[in-house]
Amino acid sequence: MTKLFKLMLVAVALMLMFATGSSYATWFNMDFTNATLDLGNSSQIDITDQYKPDFHLEFGNAYRYIDSRDPFSDDFGMSNGDISQNGQPAQVGRMHFLDPQTYFELDVWTIDPRNITVDVYDASLNYLGSSATFGSTTGTTLYYNTSYGPASYIDWHDDGGFVSIANVRYDLVPEPGTLMLLGLGLAGVGILVRRQK
Asked: Which of the 8 DSSP states describes residue 150?
């Protein structure tokens, strides 16, 4: 076998090993803009599973909004509550990280100054902890880092209306199938190179 072909086989083997044995997480900023995922120009869109396939996020009791008052500059985000009950108190939104997170960040804001509560749960919905902060129209960034274990779910709400989450920063793990396809593509190129010689 030629040296190039052997190198290609080693590269493919390593990629397949990493694709099945580990994951390459990328720090990602979910900004809910149409550049990230085009959901149109409606200011209230149910987002239950639209972000699941590519971004590994699911939502419950939440909707995507467009609001020029957003202090984080892009006017897009998500808010807690059912669309039909927009702005009513005691609406609790839920976000599910399909890839459990040991660290994440949330940019949050409220129209009126409100107390914001974020509750964190593991994959079995065991309570891990809670963060309460004072939200405002100027925005606040919340950080999650725990020794209790990876977070899979967060619930968020405030004491009077809605909480808008403008951005979520987290580790996005690509699908193993993507890496496997890349490895198979490299194997195909190696075979073609070998046949041409």
From this structure: -
Cross-strand pairs, 29:
169
**24: helix, strand or coil:** coil
Residues contacting 60, CB < 8 A, separation 6+: 48, 93, 94, 96
Torsion of CA 143, 146, 152, 155, to 10 degrees: -50
pLDDT tens-digit readout, 135-179: 888 999 999 987 788 999 999 988 766 788 999 999 998 766 555
Q: Which residue shows structure tokens 């920063």?
A: 169
Predicted TM-score of the model (pTM): 0.76
Q: What is residue 83's DSSP assignment? A: G
- Dihedral pair phi/psi, residue 6, rounded to 5°: -65, -40
Query: Which numeric CATH code is attached to 25-173?
Result: 2.60.120.430
Count the neighbouring beta carbons within 10 Å of the beta carbon of residue 114: 20
The closest of 59, 80, 79, 84 to 69, measured between CA atoms, is 79
Half-sphere exposure of 143 toward its Cβ, with a 13 Å CA cutoff? 1
What gap in Å lies between CA 161 and CA 90, rounded to an integer?
7
Domain ranges of the chain: 1-24+174-197, 25-173
Asked if 8 contacts 189 with a C-beta cutoff of 8 angstroms, the reply is yes
Supply the DSSP symbol for 5.
H
Q: DSSP state, 54? A: H
